[in-house]
Specification:
homodimer; alpha/beta; Rossmann fold; Dehydroquinate synthase-like, alpha domain; two-stranded antiparallel sheet; 17 helices; 11 strands; disordered N terminus; binds nicotinamide-adenine-dinucleotide; binds zinc ion
Chain lengths: 409, 409
C-alpha cells in the first residue's frame, strides 16, 4: 500500500507528502513511497491415467471451472518423442474437444523436437510465439504442453512472455518432469549454450500427470527421474526414504504401482517445499539442490552425455559420503543411501566425479554453484536421513576422503 | 501448501494419498494436490533531484541495505536521448561509485536509442542480455535503467528474463514514466510491430525519480505525461483533480514545483491502485485504462505520430463526454474536464477520433480492447469526478453524440 497524508490542494506548493522518511532521506531532501503487495498463485496438480480418453473428464472439468462469456481457445504443443510413441494423441485430443462449445481447440497441434534440442533452438521459441499471434491466443486462453521437462520449459517460457503471460497447462510425460520439474514454477531456454540462461518464474494454472505416458520411456529415462525422489526424501522425509529402500528393486523393474506412489509423494514434497519456502528464489538458499552442485558440473563436463538424474544420483552419493566423513551422518546411513542408489540401477562413481586434489575438475562446480546462487555458497548436507543441514563451505580434504570412501564400495 | 495424509510405507501399494477429492475426481480415479502460495513484492519509490551528485547518498544507501559477503555488480543502461542532454552523466556515475568497495560498477555504461525504437529492435534486447553474460551479472547484481518509458520497458524485460530475473532499478526521466509507468510492474518490447507483444510482470527493486531530468524534455513530452495524472485523478481522487484544475496553467508553463507535486501524487495513486487491486492483471478489469480504449487505437491509426499521452487526453475527453451523454456525469463536470485538458495545452479533437457512425475507424478500438482484456469488454467511465464506474458495453449512437458534443466546444 502506498501511503500519503492529505495535502492542501489550494496551491502548487509541494508539501513533503510521504511518511516514513528516514533522517537520511531528510538530509538528501528526498521523499519515498513504499510499495508492497502479495500476489497469490494457486494451481492444482492432478494424477491420472489416460487423460484424453473420452470418459476421463478431468481436464474438461478443470477448463469449465473458469466460467466466462467468451469461448476460450486452447493450443497444444507436443513433444515429438511422445508423439512417436503415442501417435493416437493427435486424433484423441481432437475427439476430446469435438463436442465442446465453450472451448475452441486451435486447429494446429504443434509438434516440437523433445529433449535439450527444444531448449537450444531459438526458432522453436519464436514458432510458438508466432502461433500465439497467428491464432490470436490471449491471456485468457490456454497453452498446453505435453512432454518431457525440456519441452515443458520451452513452452512454459513462450507462454510466460507472450502477452505478459498466457495461462499455461503442463502435462509432463517423464518421471523427472512428473515427480519434480512440472509441479514447480520455473521455465526457461538455453542461450548461446548456457543452460536456462533465459527464463522466468511463472506457475502453471494446472498440471496433469498421466502415468500411462511413463510406459514408453527407455529404462534409462525411467530410472533417471527417480533420483529427485531420493533427493527430496533424504532432506525431508525419512519414512519415504524407507519406502524407497524397500521398493528400490521393484522400481528398477518398472513396477507401475510403485512408480505412481513415488511420483505422487515426490511431487507433493516438492510442492510443499515450494509453497513454504521462497518460490521465486529471491534469497540465495536452494535446499532442493541437494546433490546438485557436483551434478551440474558433471553434466557439463560430460558434454551432457550423463543425464541430469544420473548426475544427481552421483551427486547425492558424494554429498552423503561427505556428510559421513565430516561427522554429520553415520556410516551406516551413508551406506544405506548408496545401496538404494545401486539397487535402483544408478552408478555411484564416474571418472569425472573423482576428487583427488583441488585441481579435480568437478571442484570447479563449487565456485560455479556459488555464482549461480549469486550470494554466498550454500550447500545442503545431511545430518540424518530425512534431515537436511545447510553449510557455507566444503573442505577439499574431506571431499577427497568422501570420494575415496565411495571408491571402496 | 500441499496436503497428504500418512501412508503405509511397508508396501508399494498406492493408497489414494490426496485429500479434497471431489466426486468427479473419484469417478475418474484421479487424485489431486492443490498448491497455493503468495509471493511478496516490496519496493521503494524515491523522489529526489540530482541523484548522482556526490552529496546525494540516496541510491548508495539503498544499495547498502542489501548486506552481503560478496561484491555486488551494478550495470547501467542509459537512454541516448537523456545522455544527449545530460552528457555529464557518464562521468558522474563513475565518480559516484569510485569509492565503493562493496559495489562494483560494470565498466561499460551502455547507451541505447530512446523512444519506441528501443522496443522495436530485437538486437538491443540481445545486446543487454549478452552484457549480462559477458559481465557475469547474477541474480543478486543490479541492472539500472535511466530513461523514458520505452527504455525502461526494454531494460526491465531484459532484466526479467536473464537468469529468471536480475534485480532491476528504474530511473525514469520523462513525466509519463515518473508519474505512471516506472512505478508499475510491467515491462515489454514490441514484436513484429505488435506493441508490448512480449513482456512480463516483474516489479523493480526500487525506483528513483530525479526531477532534474524533466528540465530537458520538449514541451510536448513535458505535457504528454500529465494526462495520466488527470486520468488517475478523475477515477480516484477529486481533490487532486481540483488541484490540477487550479494549476493547469502553471503546469503548462513548466512550473517545476507544481510538476513535482503532480508526479508524486499521481505516482502514489497509481501505486495504491496496483497494491490494492490485481497487480499481475489476472482478471480482466483494467481500471487504470480509463480513456485508453480509443487512445490505443488512435496511436495506431496515426502511425504513432500522436504520442501516448496526447492520445490519452483525447480518450479522456471522449469517455468523459460519453459519461455525460449517457447520463452518468453532469455537463458541468464534463465541461470542466475538457477545460483542464485545454488549459494544459492538449487537443480534445482529432480527425481520426471523430465518430460519425459505426464505420468510424476508432470504433474498432473497442473490439481490440476486448481482445486485449481477453474476456468480456470492461470500460471505465465516470459517475462523478474522482469516481470511476465500469461498464461492459458502449452504445454507438451515444458515442456519436459524445463525439458531436466535443465538437461544439
Ligand atoms: N523447470 C524446472 O524447474 C526444471 C527442473 C528440473 C529439470 N528441468 C529441465 O528438464 C529437462 C529434462 O527433462 P526430462 O528429464 O523430462 O527429459 P527431456 O525433456 O530432455 O526428455 C528426454 C527424452 O524423452 C523423450 N520423451 C518424453 N516423454 C516421453 C515418453 N512418455 N515416452 C517416450 N519418450 C519420451 C523426449 O522426446 C526426449 O527425447 C532439462 O532441460 C532440465 O533443465 C527443469
Ligand atoms: N510498463 C508500463 O506499465 C508502461 C505504461 C505506460 C507506458 N509505457 C511505455 O512507455 C513508453 C513511452 O514512454 P515515455 O512517454 O516516457 O517516452 P519515451 O520513452 O518514448 O521517450 C520519448 C523521447 O524522450 C527522450 N527522453 C527521455 N528522457 C528525456 C529527458 N530527460 N530529456 C530529454 N529527452 C528525453 C527519449 O530519448 C525519447 O526520444 C511507451 O513505449 C509505452 O508503451 C509503459
Ligand atoms: Zn534436479
Ligand atoms: Zn497510459
Amino acid at each position: 500500500m502506498a501511503h500519503f497524508h492529505n495535502v492542501k490542494h489550494t496551491t502548487y506548493y509541494v508539501e513533503l507528502i510521504m511518511q516514513q522518511l528516514t533522517d537520511t532521506l531528510m538530509e538528501t531532501n528526498a521523499t519515498v513511497v513504499r510499495q508492497s503487495f502479495s500476489v497469490k498463485f494457486a494451481y492444482d496438480v492432478y494424477f491420472t491415467t489416460h487423460l484424453f480418453d473420452g470418459k476421463n473428464t478431468l481436464l474438461k472439468d478443470f477448463l469449465h471451472q473458469h466460467k466466462s462469456d467468451t469461448v476460450k481457445k486452447i493450443f497444444f504443443v507436443v513433444d515429438e518423442g511422445v508423439m512417436n510413441h503415442h501417435g493416437y494423441l493427435d486424433e484423441q485430443i481432437r475427439n476430446y474437444f469435438s463436442h465442446e462449445t465453450s472451448i475452441a481447440l486451435v486447429d494446429e497441434i504443434m509438434v516440437v523436437p523433445g529433449g535439450e534440442a527444444a531448449k537450444n533452438t531459438e526458432s522453436l521459441l519464436l514458432k510458438i510465439v508466432d502461433a500465439v499471434d497467428k491464432y490470436s491466443i490471449d491471456r485468457h486462453s490456454y497453452i498446453v504442453a505435453i512432454g518431457g521437462g525440456a519441452v515443458l520449459d520451452l513452452v512454459g517460457y513462450a507462454a510466460a512472455i507472450s502477452h505478459r503471460g498466457i495461462r499455461h497447462v503442463r502435462i509432463p510425460t517423464t518421471v523427472l518432469s512428473q515427480d519434480d520439474s512440472a509441479i514447480g514454477v520455473k521455465n526457461g531456454v538455453n542461450y548461446k549454450g548456457k543452460k536456462n540462461f533465459l527464463g522466468t518464474f511463472a506457475p502453471p494454472v494446472a498440471v496433469f500427470n498421466d502415468f500411462y505416458f511413463l510406459t514408453t520411456l527407455t529404462d534409462a529415462e525411467w530410472r533417471s527421474g527417480i533420483s529427485e525422489a531420493v533427493k527430496v526424501a533424504l532432506i525431508k522425509d525419512a519414512p519415504f526414504f524407507a519406502w524407497l529402500k524397500e521398493n528400490a528393486t521393484v522400481l528398477a523393474a518398472r513396477n507401475m504401482e510403485a512408480m505412481k506412489y513415488l511420483v505422487q509423494r515426490s511431487a507433493a514434497l516438492h510442492m510443499e517445499h515450494i509453497a513454504s519456502g521462497d518460490p521465486f528464489e529471491m534469497g540465495s538458499s536452494r535446499p532442493l539442490d541437494f546433490g546438485h552442485w557436483s551434478a551440474h558440473k558433471l553434466e557439463q563436463l560430460s558434454g551432457f552425455t550423463v543425464k541430469h538424474g544420473e548426475a544427481v544420483a552421483l551427486g547425492i552419493a558424494l554429498d552423503s559420503a561427505y556428510s559421513f566423513v565430516s561427522g554429520r551422518l553415520s556410516e551406516d546411513d551413508a551406506k544405506s543411501i548408496v545401496d538404494v542408489l545401486l539397487d535402483l540401477g544408478f552408478s555411484i562413481s564416474h571418472p569425472l566425479m573423482e576428487i583427488k586434489d583441488e585441481s579435480s575438475p568437478v571442484i570447479k562446480g563449487l565456485e560455479e554453484f556459488r555464482e549461480h546462487l549469486g550470494g554466498k555458497l550454500t550447500i545442503m548436507l545431511l545430518s540424518a536421513i530425512g534431515q537436511g543441514e545447510e553449510v557455507h563451505e566444503l573442505d577439499i580434504a574431506l571431499l577427497q576422503k568422501a570420494s575415496a570412501w565411495l571408491g571402496t564400495i
